[in-house]
Design goal:
The protein is an all-alpha fold. It has one domain (12-179). Helix content is 73%, strand content 0%. The protein is built from seven helices and no strands. The chain has helices at residues 12-40, 43-60, 70-91, 108-127, 130-140, 145-152, 156-179. The longest helix is centred in the N-terminal third of the chain and has 29 residues, at 12-40. The protein is globular, with a radius of gyration of 19 Å. Mean pLDDT is 80; it is low at 1-12 and 93-103.
């Protein structure tokens, strides 16, 4: 094996770990971006958040194929980082504002209503405790109860209760904001 001028020689196991993380990345990237995008509603920002989540996951699990909860940890990290971005947006009002577009080709008044509703929900989500916001983000990003349980570090039979409580808290926050 030839030694490089710049430093260390790569060992065969280094390549195995790198290849394992690359496979993990390819397998989990779309779901991780979807989770982040459910919160931040900006495709580019969601990819940035996903990248940060993968970096944190790589630090924690150098070889995710050897860790049984790496995917769950990654999904929870993506939700937490996305929520942090959402909260940072509120603090930095001068930044560019991103709205949710209408789901179908509605008229301009429907687009305004959809954008206002989306803002109310995101505002309420920002005010929820992190645990409640995370479980909602994970579920409405398309994760199954088993995946949510893994990401949250709880038993599967607790997920339904957590979701119901989080949904009630979100509804109260939205109603409270609507009254103000």
């Amino acid at each position: 094996m030839m030694r490089r001028e710049t430093g260390a020689v790569r060992r065969p196991e280094d390549h195995r770990v790198a290849d394992g993380f690359e496979a993990f990345f390819r397998e989990q990237f779309a779901a991780t971006v979807r989770i982040a995008n459910a919160v931040v509603r900006d495709a580019h920002l969601a990819e940035d958040v996903a990248q940060e989540a993968f970096i944190a996951t790589r630090r924690r699990f150098p070889d995710p194929e050897q860790a049984e909860n790496a995917a769950g940890w990654l999904h929870a990290a993506a939700a937490h980082l996305a929520l942090n971005e959402l909260r940072a947006r509120r603090r930095h009002e001068g930044r560019m504002h991103h709205d949710i577009g209408p789901s179908r080709s509605d008229g301009p008044e429907d687009a305004v209503v959809a954008n206002e509703e989306g803002e109310r929900v995101r505002g309420a989500l920002r005010r929820l405790p992190r645990h409640a916001a995370t479980v909602l983000v994970l579920r409405y990003s398309g994760l199954a109860y088993v995946e949510i349980a893994e990401a949250m570090g709880v038993k599967v039979n607790h997920v339904g209760t957590m979701l119901r409580r989080a949904e009630r808290a979100l509804q109260k926050e939205v109603e409270h904001e609507t009254r103000e």
